[in-house]
Amino acid sequence: MACTVLKFGGTSVADLDRIATVADIVSARAAAGEHLAVVVSAMAGETNRLVELARQAAGEDAVRETFDDEHDVVVSSGEQVTSGLLALALRRRGMPSRSWLGWQLCMNTDDDHGRARILGFADSGLPEAVEAGEIAVVAGFQGVTARGRVATLGRGGSDTSAVAVAAALGAQRCDIYTDVDGVYTTDPRIVPKARRLERISYEEMLEMASLGARVLQTRSVELAMNHGVTVRVLSSFSAPGDENPGTLVCSEDEILEKQVVSGVAYSRDEAKITLFGVEDRPGVSARIFSLLAAAGVNVDMIVQANARGEGQANMVFTCTHRESATARRMLEEARGEIDFERLEVNTDVAKVSIIGVGMKSHTGVAETMFRALYDKGINIDVISTSEIKISVLIEASYTELAVRALHTAFGLDAA
Ligand code: ASP
Ligand code: MG
Fold first, then answer.
1. SS (H, E, C) the chain
2. Which CATH class is domain 271-346?
3. Which of 72, 135, 206, 327 lies 20 to 30 angstroms, CA to CA, from 368?
4. Closest residue to atom 8 of ligand 1, CA basis
5. Is the CB of residue 76 below 6 angstroms from any atom belonging to ligand 1?
6. pLDDT for 72-117, tens place per residue?
7. Can you give the pTM of this predicted structure?
């Protein structure tokens, strides 16, 4: 069907004034003849408030890792409110519109509450309504389980709702309206000369998203890639009539001029764990990482090297700050079983990465990266690579210097 899915995030629907602006944007597009489904998030800050309420009602002192259906009933309600408010604002402008909650859309999910996965859509009448010219205002972030219970898709999940609705409707594009005007080569707060990218491939966007450039929920990018949904990231804050092309997230072959490096990402939420003098025999690594996996520790970089001692190795890996505490506890407890001399946790580290599909076909990228860091006197601790990414672990205080140096070294600075 020739239709477009629009999505508005929390800051875009933060209050009634913002919702009025959104209603103006949507009405103008509908008046120009577009058939639209609009997915909305909760008002900014609302989901946090609801999560806290649910926590207090359940009498829990710590933030939970697993959730149940009643938790989802509470935290999904923010999106119900904004979908109704936007539908009202559209009707006020003379536009035929109707709100759709997850169960009304028949967006079926599994029952992993708090981070449910979308299984598919059953017949709901949504495509027919959009086809007939009604503006469908969809509550993001929520679906329904086989048992008929409300389930939420994980924080930031409205992006995933929007892409899923776009795939289900066969929409020509999914426009994600947010508070920035696109995806940048790096964080503009660190590098004022950062540039908006016209296009970025799904693969690059996945690396950017999971590396801390939080524009889109990672899962939404995966879904878009798997279903070939073209996504556009653009601003809901630009003045009407202003050119607002945003950034297209699309497949690699739709990008004619490929950059070797498209962006520089960084993350300060990194911890480096070193196991000194681990017994060097088959099965030890498997045992260490299966213990960590069982404890829910998501390991990122891994390096193993020979240690001074005969038959010993040093093992280095990284994870988030929060998980490093769990990792330390697990490993100390397993000491009887896994023999090592000493354990060290360093949270004073950051990961800086360069990302680009052009790397697949260019040589010398790593050399340029390492030289740029060396020129600034930055020591590289751990290195990891993939086909389209090189990451280094460095001392946290050098993060900004490193990001700037790399942005310049790969010719990304705006003129
Ligand atoms: N309201 C939900 C959240 O804050 C979902 C979203 O905004 O995408 O995580
Ligand atoms: Mg978001």
1. CCEEEEEECHHHHCCHHHHHHHHHHHHHHHHCCCEEEEEECCCCCHHHHHHHHHHHHHCCCCCCCCCCHHHHHHHCHHHHHHHHHHHHHHHHCCCCEEEECHHHHCEEECCCCCCCCEEEECCCCHHHHHHCCCEEEEECCEEECCCCCEEECCCCCHHHHHHHHHHHHCCCEEEEEECCCCCECCCCCCCCCCCECCEEEHHHHHHHHHCCCCCCCHHHHHHHHHHCCCEEEEECCCCCCCCCCCEEEECHHHCCCCCCCCEEEEEEEEEEEEEEEEECCCCHHHHHHHHHHHCCCCCCCEEEEECCCCCEEEEEEEECHHHHHHHHHHHHHHHHCCCCCEEEEEEEEEEEEEECHHHHHCCCHHHHHHHHHHHCCCCCCEEEEECCEEEEEEEHHHHHHHHHHHHHHCCCCCC
2. alpha beta
3. 206
4. 156
5. no
6. 999 999 999 999 999 999 999 999 999 999 999 999 999 999 999 9
7. 0.89
